[in-house]
């Protein structure tokens, strides 16, 4: 999973969009490709932002790229675009867009036309690095990954106990903590489980 570009744009209802702040990670491309790829990603960001209605979110796929767009609209006419590979999950992408638009709007409240101003927004570089791994950036995905890992460990533990069947039988026979009825129940249950084979 990879995040290639992140942009904040002003998208007027009529006219062309203006990139206010952007960051990119083109480390997976060769030196000779970086310029062309960067131009294409900027073009793609502007195009999808202009074609996304105000207050709407959408994802647009082009070749190996997916552009996730959130056009917040309102008085600021702000939109954000993150371009990722196709494997990148949708939820963290839109979470990133909402977060970065909130932070940008609070740092630079709308005072006329954004396009006439210059911005220093270093947080955009931090976010493009942080969201390279969506599991680290998105708490729900992180919890899900931890649950999946716990489930794998649990399955491994159960499998290792099942492989030690003879040792478990010896422990049951030698146990002083189990009554005679419990030992008999264990042996009966084991015999019944062994006699029936499902094919």
TrEMBL record:
Belongs to the synaptobrevin family. Residues 139-199 form the V-SNARE coiled-coil homology domain. GO terms for molecular function: SNAP receptor activity. GO terms for biological process: endoplasmic reticulum to Golgi vesicle-mediated transport. Keywords: Cell membrane, Coiled coil, Lipoprotein, Membrane, Methylation, Palmitate, Prenylation. PANTHER family: SYNAPTOBREVIN HOMOLOG YKT6. It is found in: Cell membrane. Its main location: membrane. GO terms for cellular component: Golgi apparatus; plasma membrane. It is a lipid-anchor. Residues 7-108 form the Longin domain. It comes from Athelia psychrophila. This is Synaptobrevin homolog YKT6.
């Amino acid at each position: 999973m990879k995040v290639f570009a992140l942009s904040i744009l002003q998208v007027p209802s009529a006219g062309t969009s203006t990139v206010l702040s952007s960051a990119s990670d083109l480390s997976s491309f060769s030196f000779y490709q970086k310029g062309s790829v960067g131009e294409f990603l900027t073009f793609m960001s502007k195009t999808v932002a202009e074609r996304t209605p105000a207050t709407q979110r959408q994802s647009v796929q082009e070749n190996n790229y997916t552009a996730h767009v959130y056009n917040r609209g309102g008085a600021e006419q702000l939109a954000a675009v993150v371009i990722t590979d196709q494997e990148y999950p949708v939820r963290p992408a839109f979470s990133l867009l909402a977060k970065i638009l909130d932070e940008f709007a609070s740092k630079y409240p709308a005072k006329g036309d954004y396009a006439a101003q210059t911005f220093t927004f270093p947080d955009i570089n931090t976010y493009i690095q942080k969201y390279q791994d969506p599991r680290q950036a998105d708490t729900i995905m992180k919890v899900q990954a931890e649950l999946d890992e716990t489930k794998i460990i649990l399955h491994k533990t159960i499998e290792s106990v099942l492989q030690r069947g003879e040792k478990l039988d010896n422990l049951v026979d030698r146990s002083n903590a189990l009554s005679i009825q419990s030992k008999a129940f264990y042996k009966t249950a084991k015999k019944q489980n062994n006699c029936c084979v499902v094919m």
